[in-house]
Amino acid sequence: MNNNYLCMYKRIKLAKSALMVLLLTSQHVFAVETATANEFPKIVTIQQLLQIVRDKSPRYAVAHSQIETAEAGVIAADVLPNPSVTYGRYDQAAGRMGTQFDGFSQQNVTVTMPVLLAGQHGARKTAAERKVDVSIADAQVEYNQLVRDTWGLFVELLAGQQRVAVLEDAHQELARLKTIISGKEEAGTASRYDVLRITQELQNLQVRLESSQTEITSTVGKVGVLLGFSNWKFEAAGNLVPIGAPAEVSTLWQQVEINNPELESARRETVAADAVIDRAKRERFPIPSLFAGTAFTDKPYGNAVYTGFSVDLPLFDRGQGGMAKASAEKNAALLKRELLLASTKQELERAVNVLVKRRDTLSKFERDVLKPLPTLKQMAEDAYRLGKSGLLELLDSSRSRIEIKLNHLDLLTGEIEAELDTMQVSGLLIATVEQSKR
Predict the structure, then answer these.
(1) Residue 278's pLDDT is what?
(2) Nearest-5° angle of CA 181, CA 382, CA 201?
(3) CA distance 321 to 327
(4) Is it the case that residue 401 has pLDDT exceeding 70?
């Protein structure tokens, strides 16, 4: 019974020690993450953010790690097969001397070495190297998508900050109007209802402002989730302006054939499939093994050396399975590339059409709706001061100006998103990022 209590005590003590180690470890990890987050700037441009994505993002590191895995496959393929050593011992049964050999025992030592005579070694290494090429292209595909998502969230954050700025300006404007209306009430030219109405409008605008600020916090959190960062709070720096991406399908299609990472990955998969077929052809040849050994006895001592070779007879397994699998992979790679070419061209046409229409809509909006806005604002305030319009008309004018400015931000965001889609499909997105680093 005492032994049971002693074992239970030891287990509890061990559990407490493990818990303390876990707590200390978690505190250490938390401290490291906080320090890492504090190293990042609090105000970033899109160029700085994309540089952080490539240099410090855990998500990019995970995408890039598949290249290291493929390179390890090259090392494995470049290693020659190991020789083997066989040892055996024969002992004469008691009272039966000389039935197999003279002496009490015979010992055998044999060294066997497989020999890759049919070029299997080179074919294996080439196939592994082609897989590395595919992994590099696949990592570029993931990086392309990561840049697209990061840039899109940055645009969303920048638009959210400008949306907050618009609502703050509108709040100040309504506060100024409330001061005017309160003064008119004191002068007897405005009613108490007018003061209550403008106060309610201010409170409603305050709610919209707080909601927009919450959306900014959410967007910053989305960036942290996407890139694998924690405790990083930052603001976006820059102007919400179109990138200026080209919108001609014929010109962009030439860039697709050169820069699109998905098409490059599909092309490399086809090349890798050819290398796998060549490896399967080489593997069909049996691998011979050369061996040499010695057999020696004692009492009396005798020694003999023997050599030879062994090889499988390809009567049943002639590599049919490997060839069939390699051919199927090649066919799948070709079909994937054809499908990707067709879908990429369709996606490019769609993205360009959307970009052209969004660009045209934004241009008309800025010319016909946004440009006359200051004049309309002044006219509405003058009409109210002169008594030619009431409070409702003044508030309606203020609400219209706010909605027009917010609508302009939405149109700007929509055009930039369309530009990013076009650049991603054409492959110009990564090219633009790399060019901005120079």
Answers:
(1) 95
(2) 40
(3) 10
(4) yes
Q: What is the mean pLDDT of the chain?
A: 84
Helix (H) or strand (E) holding 189: none
Q: Where are the domains of the chain?
A: 28-80+116-284+319-433, 82-115+285-318
pTM for this predicted structure: 0.79
In angstroms, the CA 422 to CA 137 distance is: 20
Instruction: List the one residue out of 379, 378, 376, 383 whose CA is nearest residue 403.
Output: 376
Query: How confident is the model at residue 186, as a pLDDT?
Result: 73
Look up the CATH architecture of domain 82-115+285-318.
Single Sheet (2.20)
User: Scanning the structure block, which residue is given the tokens 């590395």?
Assistant: 132
> Cβ neighbours of residue 123 under 8 Å, at least 6 residues apart?
275, 278, 279, 281, 282, 283
Q: How far apart are CA 436 and CA 438, in angstroms?
A: 6
Dihedral angle over CA of 54, 60, 63, 67, nearest 10: 40
**How do 289-298 and 105-114 pair as beta strands?**
antiparallel
Q: Please give the C-alpha separations between residue 275 and each of 70, 115, 318, 330, in angstroms, as whole numbers.
A: 15, 21, 19, 10
Question: Distance between the two ends of the chain, CA-based, in angstroms?
Answer: 76
Residues 370, 289 contacting (CB under 8 angstroms): no
Rounded to an integer, what distance in angstroms lies between the CA atom of residue 126 and that of residue 276? 9
**CA-CA distances (angstroms) from residue 158 to 164, 171, 235, 237, 240?**
10, 20, 8, 7, 7
pLDDT digits (tens, 9 = 90+) for 154-209: 999 999 999 999 999 988 888 887 787 777 777 776 677 777 888 888 898 899 99
Kind and range of the H or E run holding 435: helix 428-436
What tokens were used for 125? 């290494």
Spatial distance between the Cα atoms of 237 and 235, rounded to a whole number of angstroms: 6
Which amino acid is residue 232, in one-letter code? W
For residue 314, cis peptide bond before it (omega within 30 degrees of 0): no
pLDDT at position 24 over 50: no
CATH topology of domain 28-80+116-284+319-433: Outer membrane efflux proteins (OEP) (1.20.1600)
Is there a contact between 84 and 114 (Cβ–Cβ < 8 Å)? no
3-state secondary structure of 155: helix
Angle between helices 192-227 and 46-56 (to 10 degrees): 30
Residues near 189 by Cβ (< 8 Å), separated by ≥ 6? 387
CB 230 within 8 A of CB 151: no
